[in-house]
Amino acid sequence: MRKMYRLSPGAGFLLVLLFCTSALSAQETQLRSQDVERWIASMEDLQATGVADAPLSMLMASIYDAPNFDQITGSVIGTVPAMSQVIRRHGFADAASWGRVWTRIWAGFVYLMMSEEIPAARAQLQEQRREIESNPNLSAQQRTMMLEQLDFAERNLVIPFDAPAADVAAVTPHRNDLERIFSGLRERGR
Q: What is the DSSP letter of 158?
């Protein structure tokens, strides 16, 4: 026999409040187009000041392999007070929160770019496959080796991470601005 539990009106209210609060928290963590706009505006201001060139280039270089990028951002930007002021002026609480938004924008941007490039790369691999298969000048051993290399390339032609669909959607309308900013950071870092 199953035992049934009844909640008091106060406990039921607390459960509903807890559910609503957790739903709001989940919404707060969703990247929005406005967050991307604020971040872009802050980057443009930071780049205009000139004081941020070296730190931003260093941060751009570390975004590729730093799982704790927001912490690195906080420590780097914390050493340049002018950068912290610009970030706060654009509505970010601190450098770490700005870094978290950067990380999500970057992931969404890279995911968007790769999802557009992968189909073209797959088509190119298929064309190469047809050329190899129809080339009468290749020995069976050469053909097999080359097709195995193509198979390997095709298996590895995947996006190595997943970005939330909402983040990709928030980034998409700002693609050109982000491309300009990230390209500029890479150029400055060379």
A: S
Per-residue b or e along 36-72, where b marks 16 or more CB atoms closer than 10 Å to that residue's CB:
bebbbebbebbbeeeebeebbbebbeebeeeeebbeb
Instruction: Read off the pLDDT of residues 130-147 as tens digits, 9 standing for 90 and up.
Output: 999 999 999 999 999 999
| pLDDT tens digits along 76-122 | 777 778 888 889 999 999 888 888 898 899 889 988 988 888 888 88
**C-beta of residue 144 within 8 angstroms of C-beta of residue 123:** no
**26 pLDDT above the threshold of 80:** no
User: pTM of the prediction?
Assistant: 0.68
- Kindly report, residue by residue over 47-83, the tens digit of the pLDDT: 887 767 677 777 776 666 555 666 777 777 777 788 8
CB contact at 8 A, 80 and 57: no
Q: Among positive and negative, which fits the CA dihedral 120, 125, 131, 137?
A: positive
Please give the radius of gyration of the chain, using alpha carbons only, rounded to the nearest integer.
24
DSSP string, 10-70: HHHHHHHHHHHHHHHHHHHTS--HHHHHHHHHHHHHHHHHSTTHHHHHHHHHHTTT-TTHH
